Sequence to fold (326 residues):
Amino acid sequence: MNRIDRYSNTAWNSQNYNNQKPRPELGVLTKLLQGSAPLPWCRANETVPVSMIEEPTPTEIRQRLKENKGETHWDESQYSAGSLNKWGLIYFYLTAIAKGCCTMLAPLSFVSSLALVFFDDTIDFIDFIEIMIFFCIYIYIPSALIWGYFEASGRGYLPMPWFMKAVKHFTFSRATGMVTRYKNNKELYSHPFPEFDCYLVSSPSHQGILSYQLHLVHRYHRYFDSIPLHGFSASQQPDEFERIWNLIQRYMDTSQPMPDIPELEPARPRDPTTAAYDAKINRKPDYWFSMDDDEFEEAIAQLRAEQRFMPSMGPKIDLFKGGTQA
Fold:
């Protein structure tokens, strides 16, 4: 990964930006889908969605970085969201079943079959051997091969199966300030970050309980595909969704250091604004990564308690009148 020496002219800066064009009049259907006014733009504060950063732990992130040889979906340049294609998902679930067969079913069947030899007079030791051979040939050896190949390819010892292709959904580029939406791994649209609005949409479940979704919508085009942001966290608390929007604005804002979260810690020295800020406050370079799991749990609990009394977003800014004339 290369260190960013300077940001693109299109990068987002909350202290130096051009006024945006007024919001166009929305159609009735669009208004119904979006529900209400968008969440405000702000100069993001330091709050983060705790429900998002409590997993994975720093230990798990370090292991993942080691296995992926330093490659990550989120660094000082870009955040990339994606998933496996349908064949990759099938293979993933198949390996989970294979692992279960090897680690749980195999010892259980061995013990239960051996118990039958001692407690059932109709089954002798020869029958036990035949049963074990049958299970090994048709279940355990194939399962071990499937699981073993998955583990070996994940660690880089063997090539990934050809069908394990990632499907890219969207990217946020801190370096360029561009937000890009993909469909079937092809670019659907790409626009500067301040041209988007963030909507918190609520809908009742069958039990009458409100569920929430967070969508980033381009202000000047009526694209059918929005950018879903609720995948950042499994929480259903409105405050947490506001913190997600705050965190994204913080990440994209080159006038501020990146959010202080475990996943971005390795990238902090490579981002000029963040590196200068960390040097100024004398931040410990491995603040998160030096923690064991118990220390991390304590830090998360302390962070949750501190943020209880902090606003979920920073002070508002006016994209349409608060900047310079475009």
About this structure: The longest strand covers residues 196-204. The two ends are 34 Å apart (CA to CA).
